Amino acid sequence: MVDFAGWRMPVQYASIVDEHLAARRAAGLFDVSHMGRLSCLGAESLAWLESLLTRRVDGIQPGQVRYTLVTGDPGGRHGHAVILDDALVSRDADAADGTPRMGLVVNASNRERVVAWLESRLPAAGVELVDRTFETAMIAVQGPLAIEIVCGLCPAGDAAAIGRLGNYRAAQATVAGHPAAVSRTGYTGEDGVEIVVAARAAVAVWEAIHAAGAPRGLLACGLGARDTLRLEAGMPLYGHELRENSDPYAIGLGLAVNTDGRTFPGSERYAAMRDGGAGRVRVGLEFDSKRSAREGNTVWQGEREVGCVTSGSFAPTLGRAIAMAMVDREFSAPGAVVDVLVRESRQPARVTPLPFYRRSSADASGSNHQRT
After folding, report:
1. CA dihedral angle for residue 267, residue 272, residue 274, residue 276, rounded to 10 degrees
2. DSSP track, 90-153
3. What is the CATH number of the domain that holds 53?
4. What is the pLDDT of residues 138-185, one digit of tens each?
5. What's the CA gap between 47 and 60, in Å, rounded?
6. What span, in angstroms and rounded, lies between the C-alpha atoms of 372 and 359?
7. Last residue of a domain, which of 66, 98, 131?
């Protein structure tokens, strides 16, 4: 157990490798209640978020989820708009009078500053922002058996609805006898769902899923497996690949930035970045050895430093070390050979397309959800 953004979190329950492989082969069960969960209510909530988020939310339908960035004011410490976090924005079922009800899921480490920023931009009327992080819990089930296991704990109609959920879609359901919001989302490269329930129901729902899945190979998974899974899937993480001053296009997050015909904090800056094409870009690196590079290790081409590792680990599914790095564009083509300085020793690596791991088409008939 370790401290993680003020939460006591498990790095591992038993073995990171075993937990990782369980999520790839059967199912992994993750407590992700540390993620911030915010509700935006009121007649102006949709228009308000449209003015603040990098991703267009105008036109989002009930049950739809989108990946976005939250950018701060141009008056920030860098003198221009900064990326405060990446987030999932959803439109929940509208109120009886048709008033939209919106939701945001943000990173634990950024929740307080995102809430403070949003509160500072609240209009005089028409929007209510509620932080529901501590009154709810969120449980993720990821892997090829995840949907079957969860659906087995739902009434038939709800199970059918969850089975029909497409990529980045959500629905209300009863899971293990408790009301839940279920979204077909995740951060592992596998199919699966995230389940939000009342905090008082968290233990019962967790134990029901574990009891139903354990005989089929499900394992509880900690932060260690969560990180190796998202790295294999080539997913950027805030504080590593994504930072306050990042160019989202260079990281591969252009999908999350819609600048045409819109104004949000930093929209002009990000529109210029879209057409700029300068600086370093995110790439994957594969090693022949199992010796892992770590964040901060430098990348070299001969005697020239050309990049820096942002995340690295041994990849249990692949059986070798992998990393993501930001490198000079001229050395970013797949197949380029570079060296990474690991503990004062140069380790040869090859630039490779992301993601490192992609589940087979036979497994992808449902939703190959990725936050990006």
Report:
1. -160
2. EE-PPPTTS--EEEEEE-GGGHHHHHHHHHHT--SSS-EEEE-TTTEEEEEEESTTHHHHHHTT
3. 3.30.70.1400
4. 999 999 999 999 999 999 999 999 999 999 999 999 999 999 999 999
5. 11
6. 16
7. 131
Task: Look up tokens 């704990």; give the residue.
Answer: 153
Contact partners, residue 199, CB within 8 Å, separation at least 6: 33, 134, 135, 136, 137
pLDDT in tens, 65-77: 999 999 997 665 5
Exposure letters 328-338 (e unless 16+ CB within 10 A, then b): eeebbeeebeb
- And the tokens for 261? 């015909």
Q: Residue 253, Cα to own-chain centre: how many angstroms?
A: 12
Whether residue 111 sits in one domain with residue 52: yes
199 and 145 in contact (C-beta within 8 Å)?
A: no
pTM metric for this prediction = 0.93
Residues 6+ apart with CB under 8 A from 131: 36, 37, 38, 111, 115
